[in-house]
Fold this protein.
Amino acid sequence: MIGGGGRSFGAASRGVSTTLGYVLALAISAILVSGLLIAGGTFVEDNRERVVRAELRVVGQQVSSSVETVDRLAVAGRGDTAAAVGLRLPAEAAEVGYGVALVPDGSDAAVEITADEVGVTVRVGVVTDTPVDTGTSVRGGDVELFVTDAGEISIRRVAS
Amino acid sequence: MADVIPGRGDVDRGQLFVVTALVLATLLVALAVLMNAAIFTENLATRSGGADAREALGARTAAESNLAGLIRVSNYHDNGSYGDLDTALQRGVTDYSATAGVHGTVHGRGVNVSLASSTDGARIVQDDSGAFTDATGGDNWTLVSNTRTRDLLLNVSTPLEPPPAGDTPEDYRRSTLFQVVFVDGGGTTYQVFVSFDSVASDVEVRTVVDDGSPALLSACTASPVAGHVQIDAERGTVGGQPCPSLSFVSGLGGGTDLAFHNATVPGTPTAEGTYEVIVEGDAATLGGTSRFESSAADGDPYVTPAVYWATVTFGYDSGEVAYRTQVRANPATIPRRYGVAGGGETLAGGGGGGGGGGTPGDWTPNGTVSIGTTTDVGGNEYDVPVSYTVDDGNDDMTSIDLVLIDPDGNVKGSQTITVGSAADDGSATFQNVKITGNDKNKDWRVELSVYDDDGNEGSASDTRELPT
């Protein structure tokens, strides 16, 4: 520092510089570190949602495929027809539990998979000749698509 | 870096970075777990989505076609009464169920089939070549009304009437051609005209459809084989070739009328041959009408009991797929294995379509016949010995007919002989045959017809100047 009369602050002025430098360094580091953590956390969270969505979409397509398999069997049958198709689904998608529901979708029906946490819902349409019992819902795991006594395709959980 | 807490010296320096590093490491681990889940998702996506219905539907189709084969076999072999048919069908279905069950067990699934119901029908058949008239000689006659028909097969011999000069529905309708007439439940008329173009030497089949405005469909032609052409109405073929003019037949439902028109123009047949058709309805009722004989008859149509179609309860369980339903078997949907034949021509499809498959259907019996040395018994009468050998590929021959024909084409004697089911030979004698005047030292002919259980017929002949 340059003072008046050519006299320097000597050792006493060094603390000012050290404290300022310390505060500045701490502040910059904190900003950098928190930025890194926030970015990293968001990145992981985004990926988690994407992975859950991808896995639930695959699950939805498999359920949809099984609904259509039951439909094929029901359509090929005559009179009193009983058809059931088992499907082994993962109990969780990326460590997140989920539910499977058959829901109406316009004039057709859809398979709706809803994750318990991350707020992900996936919907996969199905086209069937046999009516679908919309409104039924089960948890992920071993499930079975079947034709009810009323001649509708429904879903139920089976013991694994 | 400076101390986080002043006065702690160098030991505690850098905690902020340490904490950051730990948090980042945790995030990276979480990211790795997510990547693993993503890879698992890709793996899951490549697996087949749930159970496959193909095996179940394949087993169902196999049961259907085998039952259809069983119905067809029963209609030919166990047609004494509806009771006989039912017993045969029950036994066949039970055997099939046991076999399919064993086969399924090998592949880790259960299959079960049981007969649920069958619909009575009648098989109308004319298996001796003749005009397409009814049993009383009527030439415009209705075979059945307001019912279902299937498997109409005509084996028409040539020559026939020539096609009309014109090419309009009216030209065909004004002609005297033999015609098979279907009227469907909605009142649409289908007239199938059969003619013979002697220039091209082809049999022509052409249909006039009339649902209010008559239209002539395109012609189908086929060259006769050994003087015969098969018209398979159910499968829409003429001489084995697809015929679009007949494609309507397989779409006819209940409420169909079937008639033959112009079977003769006064006195002379417009067409000759054999035919058969299965109809829904009671055989005794049909057989009691004057149109049909109630049992096998020479040159006239007769009726036997038949199963029109049947329904089985089919069960399948592979652990992943459980399926139980009713299956109706309609023999019209599988290839023919049996049928009427004429003039020694082999008729029948590729076989194997039903009844467990595997046995070809073209086992037409065959044989040879020769006239021996005559014995003069006085008064211009002679004994004419005849020797024959007959054979059949599947050993189900039943009988032979021997007919002696004089040089003018008149039948001078006939004999029916029961033969062994396997290859057989023997001789017979036409006794006291009068050979006089113009018939003397002329060509006489002996015709051999050999029959088997399947309705097939083989023939042979020998010509010789008599007396020898």
Chain B has five helices and 25 strands. The radius of gyration of chain B is 35 Å. Chain B touches chain A through 38 residues (CB under 8 Å).
